[in-house]
Amino acid sequence: MKNHDYLLKCTQLIEDKMQSGKSNDWIDYNYTKLHYQIFEATRISISIRTLKRIFKVNDNYEPQIATKNAMVQYLGYRDWAHFLKENFDTETNDIRISEETVNTPPKTLNQRYKTAKFWIISGVLLLVLIIGTTIFFNQFIDQPKVFFNVKNNSGHAPLTAAISYDLSNINYKNAFIDFGSGGEYKMLLAPKGELTYQYKTPNFYKMRLIADGKTLAKTTVDVTTKGWVCYVGNNDQNARVVTDRDKFSDKTSLYFIPAIISTLQINTNEEYWVDYRNIRNFHVDGDQMTVEFRLRNSQNMGGFDCFDTSLEFTGESGRGRFKFVKPGCTQYADTEFGDTQLTGNFHNLSSLGVDLSKWTVVRIETRNKTSMVYIDNAFKFKTVYNTPIGNIRGLFCRFKGSGQLDFIRVYDQGHHLVYNDEFNR
Predict the structure, then answer these.
(1) Is the model more confident about 43 or about 377?
(2) Whole-number pLDDT of residue 168
(3) Burial 351-385 (b: 16+ CB within 10 A, else e)
(4) What angle do CA 153, 318, 284 make, to 5 degrees?
(5) pTM of this prediction?
(6) Euclidean distance between CA atoms 373 and 371, whole angstroms
């Protein structure tokens, strides 16, 4: 097996850990995030330029051993040699020609056929034996188990989850807990212990216990809301959750007036984001549903630049999102459904360039792992995905600046209305 194949396996494992989709669709943000995560885990700095060369899978590029060591240490391995040993049988793959092979005259066609037949039958019998043994051991012999339990994993923000784990029955080098909150994780220094983690922002989170690059256990943390709330700020440092709907509603729609936002010590003269979200169990299949939003986002309302507008829903298995921008800004557009991520930097997303300065109805339909978007009943774009989204646990409408949301309606596969909010109060 070539060094390129080893490196490809490493990058695939890092993609899985990052949970940011395939690296083919990564942008500078993803590489910067990985750069800092590797440095935090290993204290070794890999430049963003080097990471891009590695993840672009260039057969001619071979990173230094120190770089490869840092990458696999980030995954939980001791070093590159340990990574190869755990993932590839590098010793038995070496082919040696014995003296007997050299001195033995060529076999006849019939002899070669008999030899091949012997090895095929032997291989089949060996495979049956391995499968049977595996089933026996799984059913009748206690296997080493990993204990992972999370208490207080459902409620309103701020929510402090209590986590217990026990890895005493397995051999591993490094382990950590990924809290599912955008790259935050905790290295586990002992094989058994307890810890807490506070979730400050409402969302449906997916927490994972990972050892040596493999997910051993996972669970969810459901930080719910009482109806619609607003997450607003210039950045993550000064962003806050506003639960008082009177602050971001004009009684006919959701609209956070810039003057009111300014009273929260948020600078409305610079870029800021208004993120309306409702986290609850909507009891609808995210892979077979229709969602309608009526909205607008313009400069005179408090919008910024390209008037970015993201419509998103998160499910128990994955999420779906379309990000719209004004025409001419589509390099900033993107979409994510299940395992499919497309960005305007690398894909033609001109169909997601939409003028939302006037009231517009955006309809998103999902059918049989295909998502389609319509603008005022006109078809615009579709994408296909494989990983299911699952039962919907949250709806989001995110504006760059102060956009306005007039209504949202959710229909099931039979087009029965399962959720509706006209924001008339």
Answers:
(1) 377
(2) 93
(3) bbbbebeeebebbbbbeebebebbbeeeebbebeb
(4) 80
(5) 0.67
(6) 7
